[in-house]
Design a protein that fits this description.
about 140 residues; alpha/beta; 5-stranded parallel beta sheet
């Protein structure tokens, strides 16, 4: 199981097909889970969680804890009550397809890349060889 694999808990098969196509465009595999119990196993480790209305309802019923990077996805136009459902499950966004396809492809690609590294590498290039050569030509004992 790849830790950088986004998770989808989507019951709507048409919407799931669209998400799978977008994931392929982003160059990632989507881990599709069938129920809240399976979602709970990946809830804290998936870099991005995609839910439809049914998935959001089941996650709320299962009392899954709030976390970052939860997106509720719906076909355009979304049901009016879906905004409230998204807020209750702690979603950062509610997006509708096809309008949000470019944003979602970008979010999936970012999720696969993983978080930015907090450590950096530093390379220092010094002209020590030239200084040593000058020093040794003037003072052979140095």
């Amino acid at each position: 199981m790849n830790a950088n694999r986004p998770m989808a808990f989507v019951a709507d098969e048409t919407l799931l097909d669209d998400l799978l196509k977008l994931a392929a465009a982003a160059g990632c595999d989507l881990e599709c889970v069938p129920d809240a119990a399976a979602a709970r196993l990946r809830w804290s480790t998936a870099p991005l969680v995609l839910l439809d209305e049914a998935g959001a309802t089941q996650c709320e019923s299962a009392a899954l804890p709030r976390r970052e990077s939860v997106v509720v996805v719906a076909a355009d136009p979304e049901p009016p009550e879906l905004w409230q459902q998204a807020m209750r499950v702690g979603a950062e966004r509610l997006v509708t397809l096809p309008g949000a396809e470019p944003w979602l492809v970008s979010a999936l690609a970012d999720a696969v890349e993983g978080p930015p590294s907090r450590t950096g590498k530093v390379l220092a290039v010094l002209a020590a060889g030239a200084a040593r050569a000058r020093r040794s030509s003037r003072w052979p004992w140095a």
